[in-house]
Amino acid sequence: MVISLLTGIWWFIRGIGLLVASVFALLKGLRLTFTKFFSRPVTIQYPEKKREVSPRWRGIHYFERDCVACGLCVAICPSQCIRLVAVEQDDGERYPETYEINTVRCIYCGMCAEACPVNAIKLGRNYEFVDYQREALVLDKERLLANAPEEV
Amino acid sequence: MWDTKVAPRKLKKQFPNAVLETLSFRGEETVQVKREEILPICQYLASDPDLSFDFLTDICGVDYPDNEKRFEVVYHLYSMRRKTRLRLKTVVGEEESLSTVESVWKAATWFEREAYDMFGLSFDGHHDLRRLLTWDGYQGHPLRKDFPVRGEDFDRYEMPAEPLDAFSIMPEEDADERQMVLNMGPQHPATHGVLRLVLKLDGEVITDAVPYVGHLHRGVEKLAEGMSYTQAITLTDRLDYTAGICNNMSYCLAVEKLLDVEVPKRAQYIRVIMAELQRIAAHLLWLATHALDMGAMTVLFYCFRDRETVIDILEDITGARLTPSFLRIGGLAADLPEGIDKKITAFLDDFPRLIKEYETLLTKNIIWLKRTKGVGVISPQEAINWGLTGPVIRGSGVKWDIRKAIPYSSYDDFQFVIPTGENGDVYDRYLVRLEEMRQSARIVRQALKKLPKGRIRTRDPRVTPPAKADVEKEIHALIRHFKVMSEGVSPPPGEVYCSIENPKGELGWYLVSDGTSKPYRYRVHTPSFVNVAALPEMIKGHLVADVVAVIGSIDIVLGEIDR
Ligand code: SF4
Ligand code: SF4
């Protein structure tokens, strides 16, 4: 009788202890979230404010200088999204008659820029590039030249 | 270190007629055995106390259509005790079958199903030989060499008139009144991707479960066979997309082993720094989603906030946030940018405080404890037998981490401990991962401090193109640039298996080279694949709500399961 009473009391105290401990743990968590009320938000209101991307960012391509139509970028491109038709001028100079990058297929790996022996094709820092038509996302020579950032 | 030649020698003595050939290449031992004897050989290897190859890493097929017996089945075994690998090979004709090794290692179940699916190999005695990555009723076996790669090469595909139903494997007869079949996924937010689970319930208690994978199957292994070794780096990012750098690293190490090139120390250290930062990022993403699944939304916000810092650092280094494709065979695409070490150190200084925040919210939280303790238990023996890897096997108390067991990329230069759990439940896996983040931070700090100067790409002219500045000036540099860029690397004929400790476990590549510039076989052993195979084992007897907890705790990424 006495023993069962004692165990009863023991279980009661233990239960209270556990309850207090768990409530205390919960309160500590609540205190943490509460203090966050008064900290500055880390989010950015995107379309109004833009995030500065890294200088190495691999975004939309541009031509930094004239391509010599060597075809290395075509050879290395893993997604085979560059189309090049090379022609030779009368003086022996090669130039691309057609140069198209299908930016829908492109995976922005940057291997074309790495392969280009004359540093013509580059990946820029622009990542906002959308349209309603897929055709409009195929970049040709003129658009690639126009894409070049101003500061260069 | 234990002599790796012992296993082939013992095997030859034990089975003089069944062992056809032994060879070693790049320090790896391969034993070619007779098809009929595969089961006794495996039983012997697993049970012999001296060898104890208790861990099955991988089973895969390789197709040689010109050979008399077309397929090769390759088994990769690992001995926890001896810390060595062994490769078993056997040839199988198109009409032949071989015995399953399910009885030796349960891990074989899914590997054999995959080999059946991809090559049409058949395994006698397998309890559930169905397609795994493609669907029931699919025509053809995609990884056979004569299977077309591109859409336009296909004949028109006809859906079978009556597609086999997933529920067909749970026959109607034994479903009594109380039993109910519940379909969970593939669009369920808590299955972390397109995983479909068919649950058999008794009330709310799970009596059986069958995972269905393959909804995200892109045929990475097939695609890579048509790409050069360098191009195939880009495929690796897209497997476990939470840990792109680690995937790059695993693949590059495998190709480097095949080529036998040494990576400069500086590149190795930078790789380690990035891989460990990536591990932190991956674990933060895991913690965020895992906690969210169980209702702790605040943790999600905190983790994403801090993951952003890590991803920012990686973005500064690589130029991309999720798909870095930054490692190159023999080194890195570029050196660390100016001032990045300050950014990294600032993060590392702040990180202990951040981990404490998550711990304040979860570790002693009564709701968290009730949801995770004693749920999804798997014993160490079972974990080894199922071939589990990463934090899942460590949560069960098996102290196994490839960074320590088979160090790569200078990991033996750094001090860190491998955290392990005791109970093998969801809670222990949680603790293990938290500690791993702390250890990763420790490794990054050491690597930054000891970072040597020097090159970031090997000097080997076969793999490294000359510097861009030279290309413009010197004609032989230009010629070499053209050669490396257009042809890529051509490793000598041979095969290697190389794996690393990814955030989710062992990620390994089995590469077979035929001497050309494209991999003949590009086999990926992914950690989530083996871990999800054991999911039914862990959730049987639990409630439906616990399924979410267990899936979260094994941290699967469907991108690498389905490939
Ligand atoms: S970035 Fe990569 S995928 Fe895109 S065009 Fe260049 S090489 Fe091709
Ligand atoms: S962009 Fe560069 S690599 Fe591509 S064809 Fe022109 S010159 Fe050659």
Q: Helix content range of the residues of chain A, please?
A: 25-40%
Could you say how many structural domains of chain A there are in total?
2
CATH topology of the largest domain in chain A: Alpha-Beta Plaits
* Sheet with the most strands, sense and barrel status of chain B: 5 strands, mixed
User: What gyration radius of chain B follows from the Cα positions, in whole Å?
Assistant: 24 Å
How many H/I helices of chain A? 4
Please provide a written account of the structure.
The complex is a heterodimer of chains A (152) and B (563). Chain A contains four helices and five strands. Chain A has helices at 2-35, 72-76, 111-115, 141-146, and strands at residues 61-63, 82-88, 94-102, 121-123, 138-139. Chain A folds into two domains: 1-42; 61-146, Alpha-Beta Plaits (2-Layer Sandwich), CATH 3.30.70. With 152 residues, chain A is an alpha+beta fold. The radius of gyration of chain A is 31 Å and the shape is rod-shaped. With 563 residues, chain B is of the alpha+beta class. A five-stranded mixed sheet of chain B has the order 1-2-5-4-3. In chain B, strands 8-9-10 form a three-stranded antiparallel sheet. In chain B, α6 runs antiparallel to α7 (265-293). The longest helix of chain B is centred in the middle third of the chain and has 29 residues, at 265-293. The mean pLDDT of chain B is 84. Chains A and B meet through α1, α2 and α3 of A and α8, α9, α15 and α16 of B. Bound molecules: iron/sulfur cluster (2 copies).
Question: What's the quick description here?
Answer:
The complex is a heterodimer of chains A (152) and B (563). The relative contact order of chain A is 0.16. Chain A starts with a helix and ends in a 6-residue tail after the last helix.
Task: Record keyword descriptors for this entry.
heterodimer; A: 152 residues; alpha+beta; Alpha-Beta Plaits; three-stranded antiparallel beta sheet; two-stranded antiparallel ribbon; B: 563 residues; Beta Polymerase, domain 2; Cytochrome-c3 Hydrogenase, chain B; 2 domains; binds iron/sulfur cluster
